[in-house]
Amino acid sequence: MAIRSKRYAEARLEASSNLELYWWVFMRISGVVLVFLLIGHMWMNAVLTDLNSINYDYVAKRLSQTTWKVYDWLILALALLHGGNGLRYVLDDWVRNPARRFWTKVVVYSLLAFLFFLGSLSLFNHDFGVN
Amino acid sequence: MYRGREGQWAFYLHRISGLGILVFLMLHVANIASAMWGPEVSNALMKFYHQPVFQVGLLFLIAGVLYHGFNGLRIILMDFTAWGVRYQRALWYGVWVLFVVFYLPFLIKIGGGILGGSHGD
Questions:
Q1: What is the CATH number of the domain that holds A86?
Q2: Is A129 within the bounds of a domain?
Q3: How far is A99 from chain B (nearest CA, A)?
Q4: B102 vs A46: CB contact, 8 Å cut-off?
Q5: Which residue in A9, B29, B79, B118 has the fewest CB atoms around it within 10 Å?
Q6: How far apart are the CA of B11 and the nearest CA of chain A, in angstroms?
Q7: What is the mean pLDDT of chain A?
Q8: Gap between the Cα atoms of A84 and A77, Å rounded
């Protein structure tokens, strides 16, 4: 079960396993990192850039730089883990039938794994040499 | 509903925004991945998403990310400080102050684009 405690000390007592505690810690660390990464990401692409000018060339040029490959891949990986675990909490809360909860999770995790694969492919398939 | 005060709204908004962001992430990855099928496919899809209705959706998404992020920082303060839980309500209003400050530039830029009709091509 997800941890509901609002304090680290209590969370440690409530955690049903070490793994559950690691997830609790991970949510907080990845959360802080994502706040900065995402505000930067949105600021660069929606405030400093005119959204309507974004097209294939814009993305290709941007992702030709290793910096943005790594930056965006970090967002992808952290967001999928953070969002996937968050969704697990939600499913534990809202899908009461154990069999249905199990199969919902199977579908959700498969979808997220595919998304990670697809996202990583599209980031690293972009050429390094585009100008 | 549980008591229905600020903490309850903070929780529900956190959950709804989190789910919304995850849905957007799927569409966003699919959109960026379309580049692997060449510029024609990719540009067609991006032009489709430049329609005003999706830009309004984007404004909701950015609101969701900012709220989820700042409220997440509030949760962390409640978890790791001795005073966080005591001041959780004040912190929630602090979340909204930060939200407004960061949201305004996005609202002006994207909202202006929608109203100005600079979408499409």
A1: 1.20.1300.10
A2: no
A3: 22
A4: no
A5: A9
A6: 12
A7: 91
A8: 10
CA distance B20 to B60: 9
Which residues in chain B are closer than 8 Å to A3, comparing Cβ atoms? Answer: none
- B120 chain-A contacts, CB cut-off 8 A: 52
- CA A2, CA A88: separation in Å to the nearest integer? 8
How many angstroms separate the CA atoms of A130 and A127, rounded?
6
pLDDT tens digits, B42-84: 999 999 999 999 999 999 999 999 999 999 999 999 999 989 8
Q: What is the number of structural domains in chain A?
A: 1
Contact call for A28 and B79, based on CB within 8 A:
yes
pLDDT in tens, A53-62: 999 999 999 9
Is the pLDDT reported for residue A1 higher than 70? no
Residue A129: band (very low, low, confident or very high) from pLDDT cuts 50, 70, 90 = low
Secondary-structure class of domain B6-116 per CATH = mainly alpha
Radius of gyration (C-alpha) of chain A in whole angstroms: 18
The boundaries of the domain holding residue A91 are 8-124
**How is A107-126 classified by DSSP, letter by letter?**
HHHHHHHHHHHHHHHHHHTS
Residue to substitute from B32, B65, B71, interface A, most A β-carbons within 10 A: B32
Question: In the numeric block, which tokens belong to residue A74?
Answer: 């970090």
Structure ipTM = 0.90
